[in-house]
């Protein structure tokens, strides 16, 4: 049995009145890089996100929230179960289906009297369980006029996906039983590939020229086969749809007309220029930033609408509100888009929490926390016991500014899906404040890397073979062995964990499949 701080008693002691369980608003986006949130203050200053920032200003901005397995479905399964992929049965996006009979935190909250709802991207194959209301996108979903599944029935909703998910969420909140606490998971598709903006945001950046990351033309020297051998570069992997040389699916003729009025003159100029090599990469990077950041604008508006609703209804004071993404994302760093890696832009997800009366406004936290801890945190916040089988730990003490003395100082990461899509080799490793020790496993090219983030913050040079780091390697190997045992990681990984083709099977890079699965 885990020790949890019983919020109920603490609150009762504090105010001597009957304690109230907090509402939980979990706003979750897909592939939202912390580099594209102004609260995180990235050097390129890509975009202002005033509404997402409001959550951090009123509470805690976590700077090292790491995910257990950096892709969409696995991250969602980890959050629901509080377990790593090898135990929750959802290791990849290719051939996994979530077993909804498992214990999940929404189920436990529902059982304890919470009203529960999930709206938006689900991406776990099976139907949601543990929710009084659910309306989800099938699979990845589309940006315009998306088909949705509402409590098992197909519906088609006109409009832009981020607005729809917000509308449906607020509508459910309005109609809920106001005598009970609630949990709502508002889960956006945006800013996932293919980054299709709302029509109102097409011209929002006024053709701004974005600063390039210093590693846009990374040659991957100083690192091994995996970094050289991936299929996720702006140079080689970007499609015409990614570049908006062809429009996204599902638009009405009226929407398409507005879309083309924006893109066609710019695309005509691009075609006439016949760009090659680095010039082509530079043009694509600018187009990528325009589109990706425009989709984030709508997400930020959605957060603003939710915060305003909570204020207007007098709910904000008793609501724990979270903004997070399913993982990090590359915005041109190392020449990449996508995620999957143990490296910082990918493994680190944005995580902002506001809980009035508990979190101190404007706090910045650098403890190693994880999406593995989210469910445990919500249960503990509600005063509910955390099942021993969950592998994370409640963040409630940290939210109060009271980090437990035995908080984790090393974090375990493991990625499986290979070879499609994106050809990122399976790897696992241990992350500490300063170091990352990584083993690329599962293929015949089995090897290790070590990164010293203090000396090499952009993770450009493996120092694994440097004799000066031998004691560090030995220490981290010990830590890795300890974590793998504690977390019950099997030595032999079943072939299906790697996806449809098995780790060495096929080996063909299928771009069509990559588009569907990533
Ligand atoms: Ca994702």
CATH class of the largest domain: Alpha Beta
The rounded Rg comes to: 22 Å
State the total count of DSSP E strands. Answer: 16
Q: Identify the quaternary structure here.
A: single chain
Write down the CATH topology of the largest domain: Alkaline Phosphatase, subunit A
CATH architecture of the largest domain, please? 3-Layer(aba) Sandwich
How many discrete structural domains? 3
Would you give an account of this structure?
The chain has 518 residues and is of the alpha/beta class. The protein has three domains: 287 residues, Alkaline Phosphatase, subunit A, CATH 3.40.720; 85 residues, no CATH class; 87 residues, Arylsulfatase, C-terminal domain (2-Layer Sandwich). The chain is built from 14 helices and 16 strands. The strands form three sheets. Strands 7-6-5-4-8-1-9-10-2-11 form a ten-stranded mixed beta sheet, sandwiched between helices. It has a four-stranded antiparallel beta sheet with strand order 13-14-15-16, with helices on one face. It starts with 6 loop residues before the first helix and ends with a helix. The site of calcium ion has 5 residues, from loops.
List descriptors.
Alkaline Phosphatase, subunit A, 518 residues, 14 helices, alpha/beta, four-stranded antiparallel beta sheet, 16 strands, Arylsulfatase, C-terminal domain, 15% strand
